[in-house]
Amino acid sequence: MKAHTTKIQEPSREDKRADGCGASAPHTALASDNHREWHEGASEPPFGKGATVRCDVDEPFRRKNARVHSAGHLIDVAMARSGCTLKPTKGYHFTPGAYVEYEGKLDAAERDALVPKVQAAMDELISAGVPTLVKTVEGPTLGQHCPAGSIPEDPTLWGVGWVRVVSVGGQGCPCGGTHVNDTKELGGVKVEAIKGKGKVTRVSYTMID
Predict the structure, then answer these.
(1) Among 53, 97, 105, 205, which is disulfide-ready with 20 (CB 3.0 to 4.6 Å)?
(2) More confident: 56 or 127
(3) β-strand 188-197 against 54-57: which pairing, if any?
(4) Which residues pair with 59 in a beta bridge?
(5) Domain covering 61-208 in this structure, CATH number
């Protein structure tokens, strides 16, 4: 069985360090493969295979980015609750400039009317403290765990090995990133704007600390 590899998209700041044998090396990327985590750095670490190391994490920085990432997932749920049927295609879960893009266009009046609806849905979901659920499923079963809009229409593209599914706000999506424990941990999220950009619709958001 071929395993599914998930590349975790997170900010490139070196917020993790692996220390061992009296030396340290900055961590710049993380990938999960067959239930193992691969920590990558810009250069070879000063310790070898079999060494015992400690991984230190900049917790405030990581928690902040988990909030931004989960907020992007919750935007999808809020859009659906607001009656929008556009398919999500891309998420930029970094600050400043976080947004989620959707396939298709809305006219200006529709976009303007949608902003307060999505904001109200976000506020309601955050207040509810919906737990985040993480599970590993077989690729061919993704359709049982994720809404149609969040996965490819062709089931042959779902993979044949395991896939990590994260449910934020009650809606599942294949994801390898870091998330909050429940929606209440997001605190405040402001829907800044909904704009048309070429053939897509972009929802921009910011975190209220």
Answers:
(1) 53
(2) 127
(3) unpaired
(4) none
(5) 3.30.980.10
DSSP code string of 83-96 = T--PEEEEEE--SS
> Got the DSSP string for the chain?
-PPPEEE-----S--EEEEETTEEEEE-EEEEETTEEEEE-SS--SS-TT---EEEE-HHHHHHHHHHHHHHHHHHHHHHHTT--PEEEEEE--SSS-EEEEES---HHHHHHHHHHHHHHHHHHHHHTPBPEEEEEEGGGGGGTS-GGGS-SSGGGS-SSEEEEEEETTEEEE--S---SBGGGG-EEEEEEEEEETTEEEEEEEEE-
Q: Is 159 exposed, middle or buried (0-12, 13-18, 19+ CB in 10 A)?
A: middle
Tokens of 34: 């067959």
Alpha-carbon span 193 to 203, nearest angstrom: 6
Contacts of 159 by beta carbon, 8 Å cutoff, 6+ apart? 2, 4, 139, 140, 142
How far, in Å, CA of 104 to CA of 86, rounded? 6
Selection from 115, 121, 87 nearest residue 101 by Cα: 87
Which of 135 and 8 is assigned the larger pLDDT? 135
Q: Is the pTM of this model over 0.70?
A: yes
